[in-house]
Design brief:
The structure holds three protein chains of three kinds.
Chain A lengths: L2 H59 L4 E4 L2 E7 H12 L2 H8 L4 E5 L15 E6 L6 E11 L4 E11 L2
Parallel strand pairs in A: 2-5
Antiparallel strand pairs in A: 1-2, 3-4, 3-6, 5-6
Chain B lengths: L1 H36 L5 H18 L5 E17 L4 E6 L3 E4 L4 E3 L3 E15 L3 E9 L3 E4 L18 E7 L27 E7 L6 E7 L3 E6 L1 H9 L3 H32 L8 H11 L2 H5 L7 H16 L7
Chain C lengths: L2 H53 L9 H11 L3 H15 L6 E7 L2 E7 L5 E3 L3 E3 L3 E8 L1
Antiparallel strand pairs in C: 1-2, 1-5, 3-5, 4-5
Helix pairs in contact in C: 2-3
The chains are: A alpha+beta, B alpha/beta, C alpha+beta.
Chain lengths: ~160, ~325, ~140
Amino acid sequence: MSINHRGQLEIGITTMVLIVFIVLLLLSLILYFKFTYLELEEDRTTLLDQKYNSILSVIIGLPEFRCSRGGIESECLDAAKLSAFSGVYASNKEHYGNIFGTVNGIWVDVPVNDVNNLNYPDQGRFSVYGKADLKGGIYSVPVSLYYPESKKYKIGILKIRGEL
Amino acid sequence: MVSRLNKKGIAITFDWMFSIVAGVLIFSFLIYFAVQNTDLFGKVTARIVSEELDILFSGYETAQVSTVLDFGREATLDFRCDEINKRQKFMINDREGKNLWGKIIFAPKNVKSDKINVATASWNAPFRVANFVYLWDKRYLLDYDSDLELPEWVNPSASGDINIKFARDSSLALSSSSSFDCSYNFRTSNNEEYDKVIYYDKNPSDDDVRGYVCFKGKEKSFFYGEAMMIGAIFSESKIEFDCVKDIAVDRLKIVNDIYTKKVSNLIISDRSCNPNFGASYNNAVHEIDNNGMLEKDFDSFDFGYVNRIRSANQNLISTGCAGVY
Amino acid sequence: MKRGQAEIIGLVIVVLLLVFALIFFVKIKGFEDDNESRLIRSNLRANSALNALMKVHIENDKKQMKDLVDDCITASKDCDSVERKLREALLYAFEDNINYNLTVYRGDVADISLGRTCKSSINASPFIIRSNGKVELKICT
């Protein structure tokens, strides 16, 4: 083989090697980023779940909402306090904005009551923070609602609207 | 000849290019992987720990706990209280920090250890206002009489980094803030001055306490409730204690407001309540809505006010009406 | 092909294989830990739901759901009615797209079972009924 042809052959071989290498690299990069994306999605779901559970545990535990009888608390929300809360929230927006500010809205629906009824004790929706009709997904949790005047419990749905 | 040499040269150049490109790519991968798993001088760990601690503190707000945070290696937590904005902030290892919205934490300014003690206690006045969270690393020598029942986890040591004296003073019920003076001559068994002296008086109805903390330099600060008194143990100075106390008092006003408005709802809706006892509701409203007590200086918060609310509430429950709390 | 080129290709492939092996190893290890903490945290939601279901007062009835379940377990009284009322309460508590499984046990025997079988789930702490019974709620994941 002449030197000319040998050189050309070497260029050709090297080019082929480069192409094969780049193809291999691209494939491995695609695979890597695909797995990384899946892992990030998993992390995101876990963190969001953590965030909403944290807000849920705060709301259930706050003396502003927690039910009690004679000073003894139990695992429920006081409907009379929830109804009264909107007035208190209006004068302490900054305080609650700092506590709940990572979400768009928090409210409690009472499925057995009419959602448009704003009169306690037949109130169908108790607003806690923000607005119910903003953007974002809804994270909902059934909670026990206690009505102190009738000493009865109903099922309420605590809804948190935020990023999902 | 020249063209033969050029093609040979190009081939060699291609080899070099390929080697360099491959080498750089492999090196980049390794560097990227290494960066993913290193700590960037502790910043990543500090950030994660601060987020986790914030969630932990949120959980402590609603539960009674006493535990130890084991970091595995020495960690430094710095606590600061902003008097103007009424908020607390903490920092980890001087790197990352977070604002503690809605949480009330009594701790020394600087807590440094691999094992940090954490505990909570409920602050009642008489309804639960908040759970106070306490953090500490030092040992406390507490000198008190048997009539004062402190939680087990307060754990007074036989010897301590900090010496605190508790002195019961019944005259506190009659005295006002302006008349109380931090002049004391208490000394430890080693004839040293105490770091703090806490004067307290007990409520005969429920054994809760109120009184004054005297910090070094004879600076006094009022407290109400055992939970707040325990907070005084871990606060290093009057300024820090007063700042956290102000946050707690703001919470008291908010919770108080909720109960006032709740009573209004109950008056309208409690049909099972005997109308003759409607006066009880109004009494309760009068006591809770007694703005004089909360609008005044918190120093005048007394047992009488708390007892009246408790009494009105018990009266309501015993007569079949819904209790306020 | 030159020996040098072949060697470099071989080296690259080995390095890439090692990198991927390490990534998979780290991912598998990390995944297990994440799963555990997720289960612990999400348990709060299931517990709240079961608590609400058991405490609710049934319409036109002075009794709470837990008392009706107790009657069913001890005296086999009105168990069909209890099952119907549980189903109604579950409709209020959960939206359509949430799958769950609620089981009422008399001793170790499942007396009432509502919802679907879950392949994987988050379990609420069992609600103990005083008379040798319990109620378990699983939210399917």
